[in-house]
Amino acid sequence: MNNKQKNKKSKKVIPQHPYGTRSKTRVMAILEDDVEQKHKELREEVTLMKAQIGQMMQLLQSMEAGMHQDDISPWTT
Fold this sequence. Notes:
Radius of gyration: 34 Å
Oligomer: single chain
Distance between the termini: 109 Å
C-alpha cells in the first residue's frame, strides 16, 4: 500500500456541524430580527398613545378651567 492509499483510509469524515448549530443560529437570527421589528412597532405605538394621552389631559384641564371660570362645580348633581 502506498502513502496516498494509507492516508485515504486513515482520514475520518467529520461532519461540519454535527448538531445542526448553523441552521439553529440562522433561525435564531431571523427570530431576533422579528422581535426587533415588533419591539420597534410597539415603541412607536406607545409613543403615539403617550401623545394622545397628553392631548386628552390638555382637553380635560381646559374643560376644568372653563368650569371654574363659570363657577360650575364639576361634582354637583
